[in-house]
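dumping this here before i forget
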Amino acid sequence: MAIFEQEEKKQSDEVQINTFIKVPEDNERSILSADPQIQRGGLRKLSKELQAMFKQCVDDKRRIKLENEKKQTVLFVNSRDGNIFFGQNDSNLWSYNVNDFEEISQMQIPAEAMSILSFGGFIYLGLNNDSVCIYDIEEMYDFVKDVKTSSVPLKIIPYIHQHQNRSNESKYIVFLEKDGFIEFFSIEKMEIIFRFQHSCKFSIQDAIQVINKNEICIGFAQLIDNAYKDGKLSFIEIIFNDQKAEEEISIEEIEEVEQFNKKSVFCIQQISLNCFVVCVVDKSMKVFNRLKPKIIQDIHNPSQSIFTYLTL
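structure:
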């Protein structure tokens, strides 16, 4: 498994973003050795063309020079054209050509970008003013709609529900927000159809749908006195009432991983049927098997950053 990481290095008058590829050593794989590989669905993989672009960027030591006083809030690679988008702590979204790192455009947005997702021909951009702006990829990023959310959307993911009594699947966009709010957005109706607040009421920093299950794994991180001092890793189950024609959704909090209680969780990635990689406030990334959650294995994190993203 290749792990893509971002490392931010400050110099006198600029910030440089470097991209590294690290493959875990054999002695770091032991927790995975007995775990089944994913048979259906699978991990999201980069195309060979995009992988080649990233490798060339590393080989050429290509960098985007950014303003020293700005911090980066979102980073996104458009798989359709390979262009890089990033947001900072201002009301702009920047795009760069991945081949030469030349600036393509600067798009004015209503507020600071906090999260981003490209799905089904649209970009969903979570903003710091409790809203999600939707843009059309096919129409040169034309504005489509502004959706009001319960709180700041810190993570946006696609969710595909597998119905027990139906052969078809239902696709939704899920907004995961500050204060533990979870909102389901209907792609067909273009509106929020279900709202839920997790009982812990912590801010949601990352979340993924568990492969082959109607479940979401959620990483919580809570600021206390301007420092991340609390959090947890939890699983929720998404339940649909298949007996009714209209969508009726409910959520059950089914599981907490005890080893991550009181730890701020920032990034999650599923790497086999039961194994997950998790980033917390620590010098190492953590690997755990859901069937044996008390066993936690460390993977060295060369960037030393808690905001490491395992995939782009």
